[in-house]
Amino acid sequence: xxxxxxLLVGERDLSVVIPSYNEAENIPVLLDRxxxxxxxxxxxxxxxxxxSPDGTWQIVQAIGASDPRVRLIRRTAVKGLSSAxxxxxxxxxxxxMVVMDADLQHDEQIIPAMYQRVIADQHDVCVGxxxxxxxxxxxxxxxxxxxxxxxxxxxxxxLGRLTRDPMSGFFALSHTYFDATVDxxxxxxxxxLIEFLARGKNPKVCELGYEFGNRLHGQTKxxxxxxxxxxxxxxxxxxxxxxxxxxxxxGLVGLLGSIINFLGFxxxxxxxxxxxxxxxxxxxLAIIWTYLGNNFFxxxxxxxxxRDLAIGFLHYQAVCCYGLVVQLAVVRLVxxxxxxxxxxxxxxxxxxxxxxxxxxxxxxxxxxxxxxNRNGYTMTRPVRSxxxxxx
Length: 391
Ligand code: GDD
Ligand code: MN
Prior knowledge:
The protein is an alpha/beta fold. It is built from 12 helices and 7 strands. The structure holds guanosine-5'-diphosphate-alpha-D-mannose and manganese (II) ion.
């Protein structure tokens, strides 16, 4: 960390917080552009990188060595866009703080105007907006526009209209508003702007249009898992019900797994093999499916890739032995007590489902505390600090 950590809050005009993951080709270009556009401001740039394997953080470190305004926060134990943004904001000393992506999709040219809106016009939040005058989605496909419109509509329905572009990842906050809100914010998922808007007290909000750029290098880190996170976040914001995201996703993957499990079982049993062998085949198929499903869907962004994908599978398989024993025991117990349950496919599947549920609850805790938690990051506990009444 560089020498300006000793600065007090408010000692700079502007802090720009940039979350990055595998943006080695984009980040030097962005830092150059920022230096040009911010030259009249007393600013700092904080890049929060989650140990990108492509070396993004080394590049930032090298640039920071010759330019003290550029700082790097390298996180090795945690991953995640929103928590990276909050970590960077917490280190910021600027009276105005801007959050933007590292991939050149956010137009840095509007930052001086955002700064004016926050500092001179005393807005709490200024949203870089694709919906405001001068804003556009650039070359987005119709399908992506429709998904985005649906997400916006849900946010409006659940929370009232906070801004025309609640999904924006490009926005400015006043330091005062940040301080008053940050302890109530849930730093999970991709919707950090909504968190800041919805958990604050009547923020004074404005919008500035910009055209969303194309990603020239690298790829988006958003995936299907984000959709469920988003819905659960809206439920939490609207009703205050915190539903553990991972458990819902684990349940969905598991439900599909139980069908695969059962189909494998029914096929092998139908071919005349023993119940035990049939259970083993069904379970193994389900183990492979649920490992992949949970790795790429449930436990993102802790996803294993490359060599870790294989190592993770061995851990997963080992943990699943517990579930296997439980499932086998429950199926055999039910079928010996109630042999009629094997008379129809439907009752057989019900038996199976009961066994799977028994196995799944234990498996969930074992996987979240062990398989996807080998570097000490707990998945099941909400990361958010408790709601506080202060400020
Ligand atoms: N530190 C860190 N950790 N950074 C991350 C992570 C992570 O786990 N995941 C993504 N990032 C960084 C990326 O490197 C990029 O700079 C930025 O966060 C946004 O990620 P993208 O993968 O480019 O997201 P996107 O372009 O699909 O989504 C953007 O637009 C959405 C609205 O359309 C983001 O700005 C979203 O926040 C926004 O909702
Ligand atoms: Mn992007």
